[in-house]
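Work Package 4 report. The design task specified in the project plan requires that, given a folded chain encoded as structure tokens, an amino acid be chosen for each position. We show below one input record used in the internal validation round.
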């Protein structure tokens, strides 16, 4: 079985660990084999752009900006990361949508608090959670419906291929986890809005459920499951 190299287009170590753990489990179930790398595998980390207005557009933008950097650096950089001359870029754009806030924070989930002061950098998890609670201060529990959304973009990399052709063949995989926002944070595990998000069918937050349960029901795990099914079918063909 040929091991497929997948470069995760993220510097978020939490995402790297979570995606790697889920892919390891799902790969065993589907008999696929993955070699997972993060941006730390590169000689230098380029600027990864998010120029979209949706999760799908942003995930595509991340792959496009990294692939463009690869081709601008020359073939040597590609061979370092993809020694077989081919592999895949996998990016994730995800966030929290709250109905009472018109879908906010949405694609701005990571920098929700920072936007108040006009900054474009990511906010700390604690400041994002605090802002979300302030914005929902007058909203009763029965109207705090929300969902985590995830869109994965998978772009094949071939050393000798045309970049635009590769981008046109990008595949997308989506996952959603419905739930609600609690009145205050609970739990020490997880990251982001996990201490505030109670998934549908449960009485405790993502941060209290534990990694095994979260990684089975989360928006990201659902998108990854579709991704692994796609890969399994690709292998058969």
């Amino acid at each position: 079985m040929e091991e497929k190299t997948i470069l995760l287009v993220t510097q978020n170590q939490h995402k790297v660990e979570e995606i790697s753990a889920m892919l390891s489990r799902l790969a065993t179930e589907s008999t696929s084999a993955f070699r997972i790398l993060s941006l730390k595998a590169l000689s230098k980390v380029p600027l990864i752009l998010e120029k979209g207005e949706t999760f799908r557009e942003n995930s595509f933008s991340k792959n496009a900006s990294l692939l463009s950097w690869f081709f601008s650096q020359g073939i040597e950089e590609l061979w370092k990361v993809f020694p077989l001359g081919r592999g895949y870029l996998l990016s994730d754009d995800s966030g929290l949508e709250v109905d009472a806030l018109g879908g906010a924070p949405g694609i701005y989930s990571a920098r929700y608090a920072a936007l108040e002061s006009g900054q474009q950098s990511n906010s700390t998890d604690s400041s994002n959670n605090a802002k979300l609670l302030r914005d929902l201060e007058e909203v009763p529990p029965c109207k705090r419906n929300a969902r985590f959304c995830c869109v994965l973009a998978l772009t094949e990399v071939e050393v000798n291929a045309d970049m635009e052709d590769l981008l046109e063949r990008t595949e997308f995989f989506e996952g959603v986890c419905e739930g609600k926002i609690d009145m205050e944070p609970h739990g020490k595990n997880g990251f982001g809005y996990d201490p505030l998000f109670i998934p549908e069918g449960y009485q405790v937050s993502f941060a209290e459920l534990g990694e095994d349960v979260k990684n089975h029901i989360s928006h990201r795990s659902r998108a990854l499951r579709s991704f692994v099914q796609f890969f399994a079918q690709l292998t058969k063909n």
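The chain is about 40% helix and 20% strand. Validation will be extended to a larger panel in the next phase.
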